[in-house]
Amino acid sequence: MRSLKNLNVSKSIERNKLVYSESWLDKFSSFVFYLFCCAGFICPFLIFYDPYRDHSKTGYEYYLVFILSIFFVYSFYRKATEKKLIKIVSKYDVEENKLLINEYCKKKGFEKYRNSNNVIIYNTEMTYNFSPNYKISRIFLLKENIIYFTIIRENKLNTPVLFSQISLKRDIKNLCQ
Q: How many angstroms from the chain centroid is the CA of residue 52?
């Protein structure tokens, strides 16, 4: 799990994003990931608009490379918004929401990492991962009848979680309605 040193719950809820102390290595890995995404977005255009390329032999592979550039744009966007909290208004109070989230996460097989007053964190091992130290963390912040959550991943570049946040949002929304 990524280190969430000095996680400030009240500021996180107020700003609608996770507020914690990041190490210089986390900041550097984010910078490297952004550079990688920018290069991945620009390279297909450089390949396609190469002045020395024979344009009469343009095949589908040149157009498929643009799909890759869209993937890099989406990855850049997910990295930029990974700390943003998703807000779900529930009809239950904090204790009932806590109970529902804990039951849901147990049913899904997530490993409990932290269950304090207003913060619940569950981890899972990443699929196709060679190191068991790297995990995906689901972070829930509770306030009155509102649930705030996000998903972050820890690995060498701290790449973002691309698709599972949508399904978690749908499941939690269904749970609390």
A: 40
